[in-house]
Amino acid sequence: MLKTGQQMSQKQSQQQRLSPQQIQYIKLLQLPTLALEQRVEEELEMNPVLEEAEPEDQVDQQEELNPGEEWEDKNKEDVDPVDQNEDIDWDEFMHNTEYDGNDYSSSYSGSSGNEDWRDLPDPYHESLLEELEQQVGLLDLDEEEEMIADQILGSLDEDGYFRRETEAVVDNIAFNKGVLISEEDVERVRKQIQQLDPPGIASKDLKDCLIVQLEMMDEGVTGRDTALEMLKKHWKSFEKKHFGKLKKKLDVDDEGLQDAFECIKGLDPKPGGSGNVVDDTKNYIEPDFEVRYEPGETVNGEDAGEGDFIIKLNDRNVPPLRISPRYKKMWDDLKKKKNSNPEAKETKDFIKNKIDSAQWFIDSIRQRQNTLMNTMKTIVALQEDFFKHGEGLKPMILKDIAERVNLDISTISRVVNGKYVQTSFGVFELKYFFSEGIETESGEEVSSTEVKNIVQEIVDNEDKQNPLSDQAIADKLKDKGYKVARRTVSKYREQLNIPVARLRKQIM
Questions:
Q1: Are 135 and 201 in contact (CB under 8 A)?
Q2: How many helices, marked H, and strands, marked E, lie in the chain?
Q3: Fold of 128-265
Q4: Where are the alpha helices (H) located in 321-467, listed in sequence order?
């Protein structure tokens, strides 16, 4: 018998929900240094209770880690958020909620020491689009041609190419401006724009871009005419580097073909640069950490292994934070009045909410710094050889760090993502230090990053006239004691942005 109707039942289940403080901490954790500076500025603007602390008595400190030593968090005390009770121990509260931006040293060797310069605005630089608009303004164009030029410039891709269909420009101008133009009109204006600086801008494809630049080149340049003929008539052979066919078709010897290729190598395949068409400002990497090794005593001219790692967290532009004393006084005055009218209650609630928010933010910043330092120190402890000598990277995965600092793998992933460290051997993204292990023939486990470096070295030193196939590279790795399959070599080669052997072939 089929039963219909509604039934009520109870079910007990557990769900884990993140508190607002935890969400804020997670968001701050994944921010790199420059983004953190902006986030702190935003919070200072939004919350009047939060303010910069006075920079008095701030002393630069630095954390030292002896090889193999585990770091003890000196700021590990947990500060509970303001509870619902109006009685607040302000002496303790003010002490615990101040965040001193110099708890983790931000001094960098080589800095000028004059932080006032950092407050100066960056000089204004015209974007490439603005420069092109000015150049177009100097062309002898009528009103319709100016509309076409505006459409072309507005359609340029990041690399400076015009990949939009010509017919789409015709339709757009007809629909929005009510002016009928032809595709020939669009092409005529586009070719004029191609002659502007940088040459080749607004090209349809790579072939078009290179040909324009060659045509603008002085006729006396060695290899120019051969290069033009090669690109115009034998593009596919050029792309595939079929040198034998090209010499026969162009009726040139090795030297003549070499001159043509050298001429083409001097051209710019991306006249718009890397995303500079709209914005010509440059993105700079601001290292989040600095790590250097200071050797101890030496025995027979070699480090005895008793040196120290100096690890610094870069937060020099993150100001020390505190709860505003002015709002503390305001809170005390409201408490003394014992006024229960709606306005007074609303004011109390406002101040209390802002105090909660400010304290959570300060605690999240402090917790972020602790987590970052714990993670960086653990990475250094596991990769001592690299930070000492710049080589000898060991296999290491996120789980290795997570287990040692007692944090979730996802938390370590957020710490690592987008963060950089300044070392004596250059600037590295933290992701660089994580890699799977590959076993050598002797049974030793090495980092896949080290194997990639060897692949790069093999390719750099190969015979450019007869570049090595992936299998040949795998064989050379085997000779060096690394058991790597051909498909693994192919994967590493692609990750290193190394073309296949055919495209690496050169004329000597």
A1: no
A2: 21, 11
A3: Arc Repressor Mutant, subunit A (1.10.10)
A4: 325-337, 342-382, 384-389, 398-405, 409-416, 448-460
- Looking at residue 59, its pLDDT comes to 38
Domain parsing of the chain, residue ranges: 20-110+288-430, 128-265, 438-504
Q: pTM of the full predicted structure?
A: 0.54
Q: Do 387 and 380 form a contact (C-beta atoms < 8 A)?
A: yes
pLDDT band at residue 351 under the 50/70/90 scheme? confident
Say how far apart CA 200 and CA 213 lie, in whole Å: 6
Q: What are the φ/ψ torsions at residue 326 (nearest 5 degrees)?
A: -65, -40
The stretch 33-50 carries a mean pLDDT of: 86
Q: pLDDT tens for residues 110-132?
A: 333 344 434 445 555 568 888 88
User: Angle 12-14-17 (CA atoms, 0-180°, nearest 5)?
Assistant: 140
Q: Which residues contact 500 (CB under 8 A, 6 or more apart)?
A: 470, 493
Q: Pick from 119, 135, 107, 130: which is nearest to 193 by CA?
A: 135
Asked whether the beta carbons of 156 and 162 are under 8 A apart, the reply is yes
Tokens of 505: 């072939």
Distances (CA, A) of 121 to 38, 125, 227: 15, 12, 46
User: For the chain, first and last CA: distance in Å?
Assistant: 89
Distance CA 80, CA 9 (A): 38
Q: What is the CA radius of gyration of the chain?
A: 32
Tell me which residue has tokens 């050598």: 440
* Cα–Cα distance for residue pair 223/264, rounded to 1 Å: 9
Q: How far apart are CA 62 and CA 311, in angstroms?
A: 7
CATH superfamily of 438-504: Homeodomain-like (1.10.10.60)
* C-alpha torsion sign, points 326, 328, 334, 337: negative
